Amino acid sequence: MRPSGRKLDEMRAVSIETGFTKHAEGSALIKIGHTHVLCTATIEDRVPPFIKGSGLGWVTAEYGMLPRATNTRMRREAAMGKQGGRTVEIQRLIGRSLRAGVDRSALGERQITIDCDVLQADGGTRCASITGGWVALKLAVNKLMKAGDIVSDPLVDPVAAVSCGIYAGQPVLDLDYPEDSEAGVDGNFILTGTGRLIEIQMSAEGQTFSRDQMNQLMDLAEKGVSELVAAQKAATA
Length: 237
Description:
- The structure is a single chain.
- This protein is of the alpha+beta class.
- The chain contains six helices and nine strands.
- α2 crosses α4.
């Protein structure tokens, strides 16, 4: 039934390659099917002005897509002179999602910026960015701990994200682009490794959905996130 031939509750193939770039304090290339995102972490001994002097750290994110990450070429946002609304919304989502798994007092007064660059898009780029971004963040924090710059691990719980939706009348896990473009209902589910909810973005177009269907999508999301967290832990072990 699914264009890819996957089962309703089957994720696309997931791989995470760490240390992908030389200079970043943490880096990971995450591949979820044909969606490929490069995530890098940069540590800076500064924080935004609104928390300066508080002793708290900060985690933020930036997001972008390469011109030929999609089927047709997109203009670089730098060439247009401003970021699009979608880009701003996604990078804010990534930042607040990752912060949900961080003890900012243990991080100390420093900022870690996660850059998420989509090399190839086939649905679920924001979810892949969050999942891969956590790995890059973990690697950067490991460096801080190894250097003795922090004494306790500020990462209290892994964070991962997956999309779920209703395609051809059936709840499905991890939508690729053909499904996402045709789904009557789709959503992004961001959870911690212990199953705590961070954010759910759900919308219907062309049809509505029931409470029972929402529960089914939630069950699928929990299954998918558990598999992604296992991949995160394997990549950073």
